[in-house]
Amino acid sequence: MNKLVRWVIGASAFILACLVLYLKLNPPLTSEGYGSSVEKPGIVTVDLQNEGFHGVKLTEILINGGEVPHKVELGVSRSNAVIGLFAVKDEIEGISFHNIHEYDIEPKLSREEVIQLDELDVRSTIRHYGLALEHCKKIDSVSVKYTYFGFPFTKEIEIERNE
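Above: the chain sequence. Below: its structure as tokens.
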């Protein structure tokens, strides 16, 4: 009996270690792009997508290697519009901005799910997530700290500009 208990504990520890390794090698949060302005280099938007299968909780957003931005909001879109600079400047139907802790970033919708939402004209489901950042200085990088299944992760995004 003692041998069986040790075998079960060892197998469980091995499976848990494999799960942690998989999560660390395949972090769920990705960014498909960002928006910046030459006229206002302290305003940036960053697209965020969850490629995982469970919600991502944002914990902290830092810029330029550790500075806290003057203003940071989580943009959510219930339409096909992504969170871009145009959404920060103008009020766009279906896009709203919130505290970063207000919503989890849910897994990305499949193409079939998006088509079905369009056909049914459903505007209650969030389709796109993004960050709107504002700072008194030029933003060159964004660090997104988050948790996934309770494990901490950091996503680094470099903001490159063609000036």
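Helices lie at 2-25, 85-89, 111-120.
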